[in-house]
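@channel sequence for tomorrow's demo:
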Amino acid sequence: MWTQENRKSAQITAVVNGWPHAVQDIERAVYSALNLADRVLILLPDLLSPYGVEDFEGVPAEVARLPFWGSFASLRNELMGLVGTPWVFFLDGGEEFTVMDRADVFQALGSDNLQAFCMTVQTSDPEEEVRLFPVSPVVRFGGRIWPQIEGSLMEFGYPVSSLSARISRRGGTSESLADATRRLRASVADVGRAALEDWRVPLVQATLDWGERRFEDARERLAAMSGSAPEEALPLLEGLTASAWLAEGHYEAAYQAVNSALERTPSRADLWSLGGRALTALGRHSEASNYFQRATRAEEIPLPYLEPGYATFGARLRRSQADIRSGNVSGGLARLFALLQEHPRYRSAWQAVLAHLGPTPPDEVFTTMAAVVPPSQIRQFFKTVTYPTKEEQRIRDWLKNH
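structure tokens (generated this afternoon):
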């Protein structure tokens, strides 16, 4: 039975996405979220939302008005650093959690198995969405513009289960990503017309170009800004430019753009990571390893043009792969296994080991891995992996019989 004590032990923070919803709709979402959560954060993208703390006086929620740079994924990842509870629950301002379903949620959270949960969003075409998941440094949102969490959960072995819990959405319809992106672009353009001197508007527009893979348009906007952009705009301008070159396959241009920016600010993890990727694509693996190593020494902050982990687990993985490709096989494998010891469910690291071992017989693969990673963790990984590759399935089948 659900009790106040259950609620305290659940330790859930609910995040209510404030844009583009009206204050009264956000308030209704907050009060419905309190049927499940101990704490509520209202997320407001500053460039888009006209609301601030003063608009929610008396509402039992905290307001997080954060800088918007053209990606809701990086906006949410910045917010994740403010959550501070074991679980996080996401709700849009135009939605409400169905109070009668809270007991089912708390019962599911009583399981010792860390996992994420889907809830049914009731619209004209109901669909299940991941809305409740554990808070972890490795569970972060991906996506160029619009956030998705499923890839991160799959990458680190968090199973996703369905709950008999419902979220009602006012209006009863879902908006396509294409329509939502058009609406977002129009909103940013409106901000630009209202504040022509705001240097952030063309930078956000360039980020949206990048997010829609319109890389030439993005570079043209960024080049137009380069002579007049204030000092605080330069990091994003430089990072986006290098990322646009890289994404379009112009690896030497990306490498040159990175090095030019590093001369001014040599402590940026994003530039070292982008440079390492460019060098990898150019086949200069030993140099790439050094760049990824430098990335791991700098601070990672959420950025719209880089996925989470670019200075932590992602950089360590890429450094290991660069070492192996450059001929430092023992060093690369040692780093891969050290990474697996720290993140035993990190799928890309497992796949990198399997790729190196190639057609080695399964028993030898298992013996090699078990010399560093506990056999129970190996078995657990291959047992729970979702949509296994051919190599993963080969080891999985062998483990079933041994």
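heads up for whoever presents: Residues 201-321 form a domain with the Serine Threonine Protein Phosphatase 5, Tetratricopeptide repeat fold (CATH 1.25.40.10).
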